[in-house]
Design brief:
Distance between the termini of chain A: 74 Å
Largest sheet of chain B: 3 strands, antiparallel
Oligomer: heterodimer
Helix content of chain A: 40-55%
Number of helices of chain A: 7
Structural class of chain A: alpha+beta
Helix content of chain B: 55-70%
Number of strands of chain A: 3
Largest sheet of chain A: 3 strands, antiparallel
Radius of gyration of chain B: 26 Å
Order of helices and strands of chain A: HHHHHHHEEE
Strand order of the largest sheet of chain B: 1-4-5
Chain lengths: 178, 190
């Protein structure tokens, strides 16, 4: 065995990738490409449930085996994307997949996703999944001057009323005094 | 001697009324004030005194009277005939009370007209993201973490934690500038 650093997947291959490589021999290239397209779509943050359902229904592969294949492919791509291209080169990536005995055609397809022009979109989508605090999506304001109140004939107090809409859907309304 | 005692009791009454009417202390009741300050006074007479003082304090608060206005007001009250009028001692007590409590009463009364939660404080910090579970975050910039302290009068604060990237900070600052401009215009007009 050539002296080589451990795979980009780490010293222990994740179980779903092991299962995937065992099951990929039953998948023809056309089917593989269909699944790959759906997995990439999911990684980009799009809702791929309908597509996945259609694939499952049109395929002869049993549901359970198909789910190993899909989760394995998802894992291969997400693990590869998180490593910057300065650290993981295309040839090393391909070598690592060859060691898993993944067919060469499939390796080429994986590689074109990880090192092709769709990579930027995948990286952007994955940064959305980091832990984040809510952000302010919209901020509306109003300046009020209280002219009088039930207890004060001449108040003449300016105040600012603000309403924030947050990225988690909540609203916060509050007054700001001088 | 009797005058000093009477003055003390009147002051006590005015402070007690203020506690309940302006400072929202619901445990200072009319009954309590009578028992503490005017136990020997017939109930009807105490009620009349209490209500008269309360009415006068309310008028003073409503107009936020300055020294000149207060003098004129109290003089007019002492000149009133019959039971509607105010004695010299009472006028003196009202004057003493207002000199020390005017600002606090106004603040309290203004606070009572605010029904939305108020912004009590802001804390912030700027972070630089080094890494996250999705990989080395080479493409993310500095992030501002902001904590807003918000609460209604008399209630505990709620803390709202937010994050902002540079673009969002600039958007908020622009809005603040618009608000400042709007307020400056209003101040100039009044």
């Amino acid at each position: 065995m050539a002296a080589k650093d451990s795979s980009f997947l780490g010293s222990r291959i994740p179980p779903e990738i092991e299962s995937m490589s065992k099951n990929l021999k039953d998948v023809d290239h056309e089917m593989f490409r269909k699944i790959l397209k759906a997995v990439v779509s999911a990684l980009e943050g799009k809702d791929s449930r309908e597509v996945m359902k259609a694939i499952a229904e049109s395929s002869a592969i049993p549901q359970e085996r198909l789910s190993y294949i899909i989760s394995g492919m998802y894992r291969v791509l997400s693990e590869a994307i998180r490593i910057p291209t300065s650290s993981l080169k295309q040839e090393a990536f391909k070598e690592d997949l060859r060691e898993l005995r993944i067919p060469e055609d499939f390796i080429t397809d994986f590689s074109s996703v990880v090192f092709g022009n769709r990579r930027a979109a995948l990286e952007a989508a994955s940064s959305q999944k980091d832990p984040h605090l809510p952000t302010v999506e919209d901020l509306k304001w109003r300046v009020d001057v209280a002219i009088s109140t039930s207890s004060l004939a001449r108040a003449l107090q300016p105040s600012v009323l603000m309403q924030m809409k947050l990225s988690d859907g909540t609203f916060h309304r509050f007054e700001v005094q001088q | 001697m009797a005058d000093a005692e009477a003055a003390k009791r009147l002051s006590g009454l005015l402070n007690g009324i203020a506690q309940s009417v302006f400072y929202q202390k619901s445990d200072v009741t009319e009954q309590l004030l009578k028992a503490e300050l005017f136990p020997e006074l017939p109930l009807g007479e105490f009620t009349a005194l209490h209500d008269k003082m309360k009415g006068l304090l309310r008028s003073m608060a409503s107009a936020d009277m300055d020294h000149a206005q207060l003098e004129a007001f109290l003089t007019a009250q002492t000149r009133k005939q019959g039971s509607g009028g105010v004695s010299a001692e009472q006028a003196a007590a009202l004057s003493r009370f207002w000199k020390s409590q005017r600002v606090r009463v106004r603040e309290s009364v203004l606070a009572q007209s605010r029904w939305e939660p108020g912004l009590r404080g802001i804390s912030w910090r700027v972070d630089l993201q080094a890494a996250d579970s999705q990989g080395v975050a080479a493409h993310s910039g500095p992030v501002a973490l902001v904590e807003l302290e918000v609460g209604r009068t008399g209630q505990d604060s709620e803390f709202v934690c937010l994050e902002f990237d540079e673009a969002r900070v600039n958007r908020v600052l622009k809005k603040m500038a618009d608000i400042q401009e709007s307020m400056d215009r209003i101040i100039q007009q009044t």
